[in-house]
Amino acid sequence: MSETLPPCPHCSSEYTYEMGALLVCPECAHEWNPEEDEAIDSSIIKDSVGNILADGDTVTVVKGLKVKGFPQDIKVGTKVRNIRLVPGASDGHDIDCKVDGFGQMQLKSSVVKKVL
């Protein structure tokens, strides 16, 4: 039964078990509610390589993007400063930003990489 349960978020042990509504790790004694973890994880927005994004970050575009109404594309490596996150966007465009030469637009987090 442990093969369907997630590993412990603290020690990555695969031997977690259920105790009522909680999951328990027998190796480090950590207890957590998996439903709360899912709610927290759904509000976190990550870039194309897994870095967590925050409002005000600077990102670079990692994939050439065609823009309707513009003769040129947004090129790979284009820097976008001061992004604003829009969690829960139904169309997948979860970043609101201003791209130099293109103006205000929305991007998907899967096509950008955070500048560290």
TrEMBL record:
- Which residue ranges does the record assign to the Protein YjdM C-terminal domain? 45-115
Q: Which Pfam family name is an example for this entry? A: YjdM
InterPro entries, per the entry: YjdM (IPR004624), YjdM_C (IPR013988), YjdM_N (IPR013987)
Domain named Protein YjdM N-terminal: which ranges? 4-33
Family stated for the protein in its record: Belongs to the YjdM family.
- What is the protein name stated in its UniProt record? Phosphonoacetate hydrolase
In its UniProt entry, the species of origin is given as Aurantimicrobium photophilum
